[in-house]
Amino acid sequence: MTKRLRQTAILFLLSISIGIISNFVNGNGIPLIGDWPASGGSEAAVSPSAEENDPPFISLDEAAALFQTPGVLFIDARDPEDFELDRIKGAINVPYDYLPDDDYEGYWENLANEVPRDRIIVVYCSGTECELSLYLGRDMVHYGYRDVRIFYGGWNDWANAGLPKEQGE
Amino acid sequence: MNRFMQNDYLSLLTRLVVGGIFIYASLDKISQPSEFARIVYNYHLVPGNLVNLVAIILPWVELICGLSVISGFYREGGILIIGFLTVVFITAVGINAIRGVDLECGCFTVSSRARGNALSLLYRDLLLLAVCIYVWLNRSQRFYLFRQ
Questions:
Q1: Which residues are registered as beta bridge partners of A124?
Q2: Residues A36-85: pLDDT tens digits?
Q3: pTM of the predicted model as reported, rounded to 2 decimal places
Q4: How far is A145 from A118, CA to CA, in rounded Å?
Q5: For chain A, what is the largest distance between any 2 Cα atoms, rounded to a whole number of angstroms?
Q6: Residue B147's pLDDT is what?
Q7: Which listed residue, of A103, B17, B133, B147, carries a Cα 20 to 30 Å from A50's Cα?
Q8: Cβ contacts of A77 within 8 Å, gap of 6 or more
Q9: Nearest-angstrom CA–CA distance, B7 and A44
């Protein structure tokens, strides 16, 4: 048994050393201690690539409060596949990766019929590992939406908190 | 039964399968640590400040233990760790399936397109665990680069 423990320990130590060394040598290495955003509750998760003029980031609590507010629209930036599987109740799908390249302006004109520009908009995607909500939020502001907020904790935080959801097309 | 547990060719085959799977699984993660760190983070099972360390080290554990099982270098340690990791994966996927989290597997690729169904993932991991147990129990001494 001690032989197995010794082997296990040596293999682990070997992996740790090579891993750390290769991370230093490797051109696309990452910091050993990551600064990952907190999520859930009253603290708003913020994208690491957020810039000064970006729409405000809101917390799970704020998103849940807006969910109760009449007139607020939730926009799901994920792929249609994920949207159909599970989403925030009442959300509208604007799949950022699938928006048309050719008539982008026209797309936004059409969307304004379904999603009026004067509403409060909450954009989300799957969670803090996904940037679609940020990109979509920026575009919505650019195309005339007046009050866009980014719920960066996204679907994962919403599902973890057991808040209302729905499925299907 | 005894012959089944000592079969040289089955030993070689199962070691190649298990070791090969872990080596293959490690490569994409080693080449893109930041993408893999995102996936680890998304499992929400590791404290935020340890996410990067796990993302840096875990793929190397997979690679080195995969090589160990195939070559016979510290074979018993290697298969113990691989079995343990498989149990960890099963637990992690299971917990997130219960939470209803939208999970990227991060098994063989760091691409977000590889979003498996949790149940099929669990079946796959359980099958892998069964093969690991066989490798552990097989007493064959042949087809090793390093003598046991």
A1: A76
A2: 766 566 778 888 778 889 999 999 989 999 998 889 999 999 999 889 98
A3: 0.70
A4: 6
A5: 71
A6: 73
A7: A103
A8: A94, A95, A96, A123, A124, A125, A132, A133, A135, A136
A9: 58
Residue B48 to residue A26, Cβ atoms within 8 A: no
Cβ distance of A129 and B51 shorter than 8 Å = no
Is the Cβ pair B104, A18 closer than 8 Å? no
Size of interface A-B (CB pairs under 8 A): 117
Q: Looking at chain A, which residue has its C-alpha nearest residue B76?
A: A4
- Partner B contacted by A133 (CB < 8 A): no
Q: Is A125 left (phi over 0), alpha (psi -120 to 50) or beta?
A: beta
In a mutational test of the B interface, the residue from A13, A28, A87, A156 whose CB has the highest number of chain B CBs within 10 Å is A156
- Which of B38, B50, B99 has the CB atom closest to A129's CB atom? B38
Is the Cβ of A79 closer than 8 Å to some Cβ of chain B? no
Is A127 close to B68, i.e. CB distance below 8 A?
no
ipTM of the complex: 0.92
Phi, psi of B52 (to 5 degrees): -65, -40
Overall average pLDDT of the B5-29 stretch: 95
Nearest-CA neighbor of B75 among B26, B19, B5?
B19
pLDDT category at B100 given cuts 50, 70, 90 is: low
